[in-house]
Design goal:
Blueprint lengths: L4 H18 L4 H25 L4 H24 L11
Protein name: Os03g0439800 protein
Organism: Oryza sativa subsp. japonica (Rice)
Pfam family, one: SERF-like_N
Length: 90
């Protein structure tokens, strides 16, 4: 007849192992990518904060530069398959 819970658990473990083998990359690689993008966005944050202390026209140039950098970095990571809607800590 039907298998017991032990058999179902074994089958589920085997399926999960097969899925894990097919997954690209490791958690360590994912964390490195997250660290790269986090460093860039943290840098642009501090540049924007610094722009508040500059003259108006210079501060505007810094803010525009930060926006361009963030768009390009986001585009690059999105092109490489990174889900930018996911939080970095997840």
């Amino acid at each position: 007849m039907g298998g017991g819970n032990g058999q179902k658990s074994r089958m589920a473990r085997e399926r999960n192992m097969e899925k894990a083998k097919g997954a690209k990359g490791s958690q360590l690689e994912t964390n490195k990518k997250a660290m790269n993008i986090q460093v860039i966005f943290r840098g642009t944050f501090w540049a924007r904060q610094w722009s508040l202390l500059l003259k108006e026209e210079d501060g505007q140039k810094v803010r525009e530069g930060c926006l361009i950098l963030e768009k390009r970095v986001s585009g690059f990571f999105a092109m490489k398959g990174w889900n930018l809607r996911k939080r970095l800590g997840d």
